[in-house]
Amino acid sequence: MLRLEFPPYIHPPSVPHSRKTPLCLGRIPVPDRQSTATHCPYCALQCGTHLRHSDGVTTVQPSDFPTNQGGLCTKGWTAPSLLDTASRLRSPLVRGPDGELAPSDWDTALDVVSDRIARIRDEHGPDAVGVFGGGGLTNEKAYLLGKFARVALGTSQIDYNGRFCMSSAAVAGTAAFGVDRGLPFPVTDLGQAETILLAGANPAETMPPLMRHLSRAKLIVIDPRRTRTAESAALHLQPVPGTDLALALGLLHLTVTEGLLDKDYLAERTTGFEDAWERALSWWPERVERVTGVPVAEQREAVHMLGAAERAYVLTGRGAEQHSKGTDTVAAFIDLALALGLPGREGSGYGCLTGQSNGQGGRELGQKADQLPGYRSITDPEARARIAEVWGVAPEALPGPGRSAYELFDALGTAGGPRALLVFDSNPAVSAPRSDRVTERLASLDLLVVADFVPSETAQLADVVLPVTQWAEEEGTMTNLEGRVLRRRRLLSPPPEVRSDLDILHGLAVRLGEPGHRFPTEPREVFAELRRATMGGKADYSGITYDRLDAGEALHWPCPLLPESRAPHPGTPRLFLDRFAHPDGRARFAAVDHRAPAETTDDAYPLYATTGRVLAQYQTGAQTRRVPELNEAVPEPFVEIHPDTAERAGLRHDDRAAVISARGRTVARVRLDGSLRTDTVFLPFHFPGDGRANLITNTVLDPQSKMPEFKVCAVRIEPISEPA
Ligand SMILES: Nc1nc2c(c(=O)[nH]1)N[C@H]1C(S)=C(S)[C@@H](COP(=O)(O)OP(=O)(O)OC[C@H]3O[C@@H](n4cnc5c(=O)[nH]c(N)nc54)[C@H](O)[C@@H]3O)O[C@H]1N2
Ligand SMILES: Nc1nc2c(c(=O)[nH]1)N[C@H]1C(S)=C(S)[C@@H](COP(=O)(O)OP(=O)(O)OC[C@H]3O[C@@H](n4cnc5c(=O)[nH]c(N)nc54)[C@H](O)[C@@H]3O)O[C@H]1N2
Ligand code: SF4
Ligand SMILES: [Mo]
Predict the structure, then answer these.
(1) Rounded mean pLDDT of 244-267?
(2) CA distance 271 to 589
(3) Contact 678, 707 (CB under 8 A)
(4) What is the DSSP letter of 148?
(5) d(Cα 263, Cα 278) in Å, to the nearest integer?
(6) What pLDDT, in 10s, does the model give residues 605-650?
(7) Less CB within 10 Å around the terminal CB: N or C of the chain?
(8) Residue from 463, 466, 540 nearest 499 by CA
(9) With the CA atoms of 427, 430, 432 and 436 taken in that order, what torsion angle do they form, in degrees rounded to the nearest 10?
(10) 105 pLDDT higher than 60
(11) Binding site membership of 426 for ligand 2 (Cβ less than 6 Å)
């Protein structure tokens, strides 16, 4: 496991990190102002920062924003250095007849894209062009991307990387509460809790400053690994990967049998307990221990810690969610929280820790295959009519739901599948399951267009690469893990030949025959339209303005626009205090049952592999592998393995090993860890090429959320000899 020299979120690194004057460019970056208040570009905690520029150097300092309270992790501290990374894309690239990507001008690049799109569309219809977005896009970009796909391209084939992220929690949360917002309460509420259950989340590495809010509570951590988060827990339950559903059902069972059920809450605020209980009834503690490996005494301790607390939370992360039964697993944890009477009570609740910078906003503004802005369903006639009106098109002209992320990648270049794909803010050649197959599908396309600021592994496969602005060079809004809308502010002007994603969408839309005003390039203008589009939806942003945000108001959606005679709506930091969002105002228990992972171990593949993150690298590493300090901390793929398991496989610490599943093989450096389960190995997914964890992961999808089973598959591990 990763150990850094200094605590991850207290001290600044000894060397100041800076955006240095780029010698290669011979250009001193032009600051638009000396300093600005903004937020870190990486994760959903959206730590507040002060960015400053002087003497050609950009530096970052944490601000006293509620989510980070003056802390930053190493990624936040080093974020400015990516602005001028040597590999920054600085002009459009078009693949020439020689098969090489070569610099081009914007008109040529955009003409090539629009001409080929038009041709493909004429020949094969609008669904032959696909779009893939990301949870790192600002709200404005995510909104305009969805509109671009449905209006300018007329395609149903749009989805985004959030499908691989919180989609299971989103489905389960919507079913239980009628609306899904990652945390339906401010992060700071966690600071008053007595007990917090963290199911499959490792915030000590994935959101270090969040740990400040968890430090007063007794933590119960459910994780097959003894992570840094688990080390700080009062109780660590260490299940076999893929068995959380049985564990959650067992905890519900014990809540009832140990007399901890909140019957008044059940009667007043919920429906469906009986059906849920019918399933949980057969998950008695000894059976749960047999399936999950979690001792009965620990199960009992967990429910008593939760039941005894006046204020308690149940939180899920990707460890519980990224499974072929992720939706049911989250539903079972929500059932547990409901049985204890937590959701919708001040000082208690259930929440999912969203992941990417704008994972929340990205999930509700219309880049998901089945959604329109405002968290509206694309199959709901009323929602279609409303959005069509805002967009100035006929409702019938809006396409229906498209394929989910993996289904979309899998169909690329096949009969009936898209023949062109535009990627904004994702690197699926590394992040998608069976990334070898996905890479092959991407390569088979007639046209692959990637907008990025670095040559990601996916960009390297593209026919056209479009260089975009980075966070410190653009304005916009983001919605953090607590549904709070924040301002991203510009400090620097971008390199000369770099454009914003909004500019690109405008340029393409106009070339495809759209009136230019339909695709504004000014974030403020897009936001004004987005407010109208979300008005009356579940995620209502209509009462939020840049001016209110700039005045420092903390606005959590829903924040509807009120008549001028009334004071503006204050936003909704806490959802569900009076009622849940279903018509009857009640939360719904889900009747779910455990099932095994799609793939279980056998003689050929005797170990479980699970995947996840380390502090120093972000996602596919496209960004953080280019930050020297971060890459030096964790420079290469590794596999965590128990010493006994390693010995049986003939492996020692630091050996290179092949980890092999039924789908493929990945190569990683052995790291011995005596605290790991002996039946489980762990790999981070941050690395490209032969070291991609996604060469082995399982593409089986959750039937409801279409989430792939990133967190469990069966493998064997073998030594490989070092290349000479
Ligand atoms: N440093 C860093 N921070 C990040 C990111 C990053 O890439 N790097 N990414 C951001 C994003 S997009 C996201 S989504 C979040 C993710 O944040 P987390 O959910 O905290 O991250 P993961 O490491 O994917 O998974 C959490 C834990 O789940 C455990 N786990 C694996 N399998 C199982 C299982 O079957 N059951 C249970 N209970 N646990 C299991 C893993 O051991 C791991 O410790 O992090 C965000 N922050
Ligand atoms: N095995 C395994 N696989 C996983 C996971 C796992 O736990 N295990 N986790 C999944 C999860 S939770 C996630 S969120 C995904 C993440 O998967 P990806 O989204 O593919 O990962 P990133 O590295 O964040 O890729 C984002 C790319 O967009 C670029 N970019 C950043 N901001 C912008 C922008 O504003 N505009 C444009 N045009 N480009 C931008 C970055 O430089 C980078 O190249 O991976 C998933 N894959
Ligand atoms: S915790 Fe997340 S938002 Fe905060 S500094 Fe680290 S990466 Fe940035
Ligand atoms: Mo994520």
Answers:
(1) 98
(2) 6
(3) no
(4) I
(5) 16
(6) 999 999 999 999 999 999 999 999 999 999 999 999 999 999 999 9
(7) C
(8) 466
(9) 130
(10) yes
(11) yes
Rounded Cα distance, 553 and 17, in Å: 30
Three-class DSSP category at 234: coil
| CB 441, CB 413: distance < 8 Å | yes
* Nearest-ligand number for the alpha carbon of 621: 2
Nearest in space to 446 (alpha carbons), one of 119, 667, 101, 190 = 119
Enumerate domains of the chain plus CATH numbers.
93-164+358-556 (3.40.50.740), 167-353 (3.40.228.10), 607-719 (2.40.40.20)
Give 29-38 pLDDT, tens digit per residue. 566 778 999 9
pLDDT in tens, 161-220: 999 999 999 999 999 999 999 999 999 999 999 999 999 999 999 999 999 999 999 999
Nearest residue by C-alpha to atom 47 in ligand 2: 431
The residue ranking higher by pLDDT, 12 or 288, is 288
Ligand nearest to the CA of 77: 3
- Residue 42 CA: nearest ligand 3 atom is 7
What span, in angstroms and rounded, lies between the C-alpha atoms of 96 and 109?
11
pLDDT at 19 over 50: no
Nearest to 456 by CA among 433, 488, 424: 424
Round to whole Å and give the CA distance between 305 and 276: 22
| 241 close to 680: Cβ distance less than 8 angstroms | yes
CB atoms within 10 A of CB 564: 6
What's the full length of the chain, in residues?
A: 724
Q: Which residue has the tokens 């893990």?
A: 481
150 touches 390 (CB < 8 A): no
Half-sphere CA count of 277, side-chain side, radius 13 A: 12
200 lines ligand 1 (CB under 6 A): yes
Report CA(302)–ligand 4 centroid distance (Å): 27
Confidence band, pLDDT 50/70/90 cuts, at residue 22: very low
Name the residue type at position 83: L
* CB distance 453 to ligand 2 below 6 Å: yes
Q: Long-range contact list for 379-383, CB < 8 A, 24+ apart?
A: 383/537
- Ligand of minimum distance to the alpha carbon of 332: 1
What percent of the chain has a predicted confidence (pLDDT) above 90? 94
Q: What is the dihedral of CA 267, 270, 275, 277, to 10 degrees?
A: -70
Mutation choice for ligand 1 from 68, 223, 641, CB with most ligand atoms inside 8 A: 223
Atom of ligand 2 nearest to the CA of 137: 35
Q: Whose CA is nearest to atom 33 of ligand 1?
A: 319
Name the closest-CA residue to atom 1, ligand 3: 207
Q: Probe ligand 3: pick from 10, 207, 486, max atoms within 8 Å of CB?
A: 207
The structure's pTM equals 0.96
- At residue 411, the pLDDT reads 98
User: Cβ neighbours of residue 209 under 8 Å, at least 6 residues apart?
Assistant: 9, 45, 47, 67, 68, 69, 71, 72, 73
Residue 24 above 60 pLDDT?
no
